[in-house]
Design goal:
- By secondary structure, the chain is an alpha/beta fold.
- The protein has 18 helices and five strands.
- A five-stranded parallel β-sheet has the order 3-2-1-4-5, with helices on both faces.
- Strand 1, helix 1 and strand 2 form a beta-alpha-beta unit.
- Helix 3 (about 60-75) crosses helix 17 (about 340-365), helix 4 (about 90-100) packs parallel to helix 18 and helix 11 (about 190-210) runs antiparallel to helix 12.
């Protein structure tokens, strides 16, 4: 096993067309990540079933619409692996195996378990699938041996659960007689200089909790060409304990939460019917902006306004140039411009920005076969990684069948 120090995995439930809140909250980060990391982005259709299993018939169309939005946002299938979660059979197998060793109490204490049950009280969520979805999230990460997962503050408990599951799994199935001797023997294979550096980094991490030393030691092991997969597992595990590291602990890649206002001033959400779609109808866009609320204290055109209280100005911060933002800010506070002027300027800027998005989407809308080919290729690449991971996991548990084969 090799730890991939630069791999990111993330997914989205297939809810159909995305709105601009999705873009600024998630997709914009993905576009940036694909330039800096090895990225796997997946359609989390199994996750969609954990809450909306009654509406499974929408999944295929929703997947298509969502992937078109990904591509028109700038997600590049040449840079990132784009695939569908349920098309990788190994995810189900790993989820099952992890469920064998994960205490139920660990799942029940995940904050979102109770919160979502209360929030989605109109749905029947008294299912094993809903209870176990944080474990399915962990399997999504661990199957592809990713060390980074983009998350917001509210999702950090899910990362911590994944880390606890990894520790438990490694302690159960990474134990071997003579581990310390085997690990030291593996370290000596790196040569005197690398051996000494590895041991010093290990000491720094174990005695001082220095995470940089841990990352440096992992990178050092990963660079070695003469180590077997078992050697690497022992050396990764030796850094933190006394068992082989079959699965590696992921780190949360904290992303800034972007709470984008909807057309009614509340958080943008399809359930509130206040969205501006990422690929909005250009003819409908100005009318949606025209109806948006502004500073509630500015009743008349002559009243002084406060852009900080105006949802429209939040859009200007994203879609308008600094010059336009200054013009709106000064004009609103001095009552030199009205809300109609402010909204008209925003509409023009957003329509121009949307034109590029529509141009990117056009080839995929014209030829859906392009989407199928991209997902087929992505599934093939993702499954190759998954199969390699599962071979190691089955072997460590004792489920390998090669003993019985001729």
């Amino acid at each position: 096993m090799r730890v991939h120090l630069n791999r990111v995995t993330s997914g989205m439930r297939p809810t159909g067309r995305l709105h601009i809140g999705h873009y600024h909250g998630v997709l914009k980060n993905w576009v940036d990540f694909q330039r800096r990391y090895e990225c796997l982005f997946f359609v989390a259709d199994y996750h969609g079933l954990t809450t909306h299993y009654r509406n499974a018939g929408d999944i295929e169309q929703n997947t298509y619409d969502m992937v078109v939005d990904w591509l028109s946002a700038g997600i590049d299938p040449q840079q990132a692996v784009i695939f569908v979660q349920s098309h990788i059979p190994e995810i189900s197998e790993l989820h099952l195996l992890l469920s064998m060793v994960t205490p139920i109490s660990w799942l029940e204490r995940v904050p979102t378990y109770r919160e979502q049950q209360e929030k989605l009280s109109n749905l029947d969520l008294s299912t094993y699938g809903f209870l176990g979805y944080p474990l399915l999230m962990a399997a999504d990460i661990l199957l592809y041996r990713s060390n980074y997962v983009p998350v917001g503050d509210d999702q950090l408990p899910h990362i911590e659960l994944a880390r606890e599951v990894v520790r438990r799994f490694n302690s159960l199935y990474g134990f071997e007689q003579g581990f310390m001797e085997n690990a030291c023997e593996a370290a000596r294979k790196m040569g005197k200089k690398s051996f000494s550096l590895y041991m010093n980094l290990r000491t720094n991490y174990q005695e001082k909790g220095d995470k940089e030393s841990l990352e440096s030691a992992r990178a050092l092991v990963s660079e070695q060409q003469n180590l077997t997969a078992s050697d690497c597992e022992r050396l990764y595990g030796y850094l933190g304990g006394c068992s082989r590291e079959i699965l590696c602990e992921p780190e949360g890649l904290l992303s800034e939460n972007s709470c984008f206002p909807g057309t009614d001033g509340q958080k943008m959400s399809k359930s509130y019917k206040n969205t501006i779609y990422f690929r909005e109808d250009l003819a409908a866009l100005p009318d949606k902006i025209k109806k948006m609320p502004t500073d509630p204290n500015r009743v008349r055109r002559s009243d002084f306004g406060n852009p900080d209280l105006c949802p429209v100005f939040q859009f200007h911060k994203v879609y308008s140039t600094s010059e336009v933002q200054s013009w709106v800010n000064d004009g609103c506070r001095s009552a030199n411009i009205g809300c109609v002027d402010c909204k008209k300027a925003l509409s023009g800027n957003m329509v121009e920005g949307q034109k590029l998005i529509h141009e990117r989407a056009e080839p995929f809308l014209r030829n859906p076969e392009l989407i199928r080919n991209i997902l087929s290729d992505g599934c093939e690449r993702a499954r190759s990684i998954a199969q390699d991971t599962m071979r190691d996991i089955r072997s460590s548990i004792g489920l390998s069948t090669k003993t019985f084969l001729p």
